[in-house]
UniProtKB/TrEMBL annotation:
Belongs to the GLMP family. The keyword Membrane applies. The lineage of its organism: Eukaryota, Metazoa, Cnidaria, Anthozoa, Octocorallia. This is Uncharacterized protein. It comes from Paramuricea clavata. Required to protect lysosomal transporter MFSD1 from lysosomal proteolysis and for MFSD1 lysosomal localization. PANTHER family: GLYCOSYLATED LYSOSOMAL MEMBRANE PROTEIN (PTHR31981).
Length: 185
């Protein structure tokens, strides 16, 4: 696709169709997992509730300008605020249970202003997840807990053991010098 400007940016609008009285909640949470997005420790969640259940969308605030997922090819994915797309409630149809719904939109734009990434790379990849229910959380795995424990626990154990040995030896030498018996030669 040829573009006639050097400051092209792309955006995607995510639409949430929700029951009357509900609004999407967009939050950014920190996490430890950067397996699929190197050096990105944040996840954006769009959660919506309703009379009949909950739904969500989630994504990392990053996009890539090449198929290779590395820091060298990262560009930002910035989300705007949640806006009411249609200023009035609309009926989804007499057939669909006579419910009123609202449509909210959230824009996610890629790249920075005037960075020219599209003219340079002509490629963009961004991924996200949409689901029903509660969003999947990423618990800290046993291996990560083990590595953190070893990394912090081993030096602390060495310091405590070394300090205890030093104090015991120091007290032993002091008690040996303060004896009531004389030195025999």
């Amino acid at each position: 696709m040829n573009v006639s400007t050097n400051s092209t940016r792309f955006a995607v609008e995510i639409n949430y169709i929700v029951d009357e009285g509900y609004k999407p909640d967009i939050t950014t949470e920190k996490n430890f997992d950067d397996e699929y997005t190197p050096a990105v420790f944040k996840t954006v969640y769009g959660k919506v509730g309703g009379k009949y259940g909950k739904a969500y969308s989630q994504w990392k605030p990053i996009a890539y300008t090449k198929a290779e997922l590395g820091r060298k090819y990262q560009t930002k994915a910035l989300e705007g605020g949640v806006e009411n797309v249609v200023n009035r409630s609309w009926n989804i149809g007499e057939v669909a249970m006579h419910e009123l719904y609202k449509i909210y939109g959230l824009n996610v734009s890629f790249g920075l202003a005037k960075d020219g990434f599209y003219q340079k790379h002509k490629y963009l990849i961004w991924t996200g997840i949409v689901g029903y229910g509660e969003p999947a959380t990423e618990p800290i795995s046993f291996l990560v807990i083990l590595m953190i424990s070893i990394g912090l626990g081993l030096p602390l154990g060495v310091i405590l053991f070394g300090g205890a040995c030093y104090q015991i030896r120091k007290r032993w030498k002091k008690s040996k010098l303060n004896t009531s018996y004389g030195i025999i030669n």
